């Protein structure tokens, strides 16, 4: 099945959305972008996911991230479903969400991007879209992809954390360790020599001693963006 690999450029597709027709590259502009797919409108897990995404939209906007969802239903269904999503959040049940939803009723975009779940099908036997997350950088290239089955809801707080890591490591010569959160210490990348690391990170580089004697666990306080 076709799909996207890390480093691939996002296809510049045209699509109908809840905010009219878009061309994807124009929609992204110079921003980071998140494209996340859903199996179907008016379904329980999807409703909770879009509700959480709507709540976190201001946090993504602070990070210069544009969000856009995709489902295999049409625009009218998306707009009607948006009322339920807002009601789930205990907000005014309007058709407006802080991000557009792509209509992909023919599954053309889902097939092109490798988003279909072969194990989940609708009443007509057609495959539904899986829970895919694509994160694109300002260069329109894929920086991260996450694939969940239709039966497992995603953690949007984790997606926000991942964006923080991607943006930090895109501009600083560091990597983020396991369970890292913004403000925690980060790791100096292995390709950076000790002398250069000392110059780049004036707050200090701290090396953990290991039985192997290899000094590869090098930490430094998180640098400013």
Give an overview of the whole structure.
The protein has 225 residues and is an alpha+beta fold. It is built from six helices and 13 strands. It has helices spanning 24-28, 44-62, 75-88, 108-112, 156-171, 194-200; strands at residues 14-17, 20-23, 32-37, 65-71, 101-103, 116-121, 127-129, 131-136, 142-148, 174-175, 186-188, 206-207, 218-220. A five-stranded mixed sheet has the order 5-4-3-8-9, with helices on one face. A four-stranded antiparallel sheet has the order 10-11-13-12, covered by helices on one side. A hairpin with a 5-residue loop joins strand 8 and strand 9 (142-148). Helix 2 packs across helix 3 (75-88). 27% of the residues are buried. The model has no long low-confidence stretch (mean pLDDT 93).
Helix fraction by DSSP (H/I, runs of at least 4)? 25-40%
Distance between the ends: 38 Å
Strand order of the largest sheet: 5-4-3-8-9
Uncertain residue ranges: none
Oligomer: single chain
- Based on Cα principal axes, name the global outline: elongated
Q: Sheet bearing the most strands, described?
A: 5 strands, mixed
How many strand units? 13
SSE series: EEHEHEHEHEEEEHEEHEE
Number of helices: 6
Beta-strand percentage?
Answer: 15-25%
- Overall mean pLDDT: 93
Radius of gyration: 20 Å
Structural class: alpha+beta
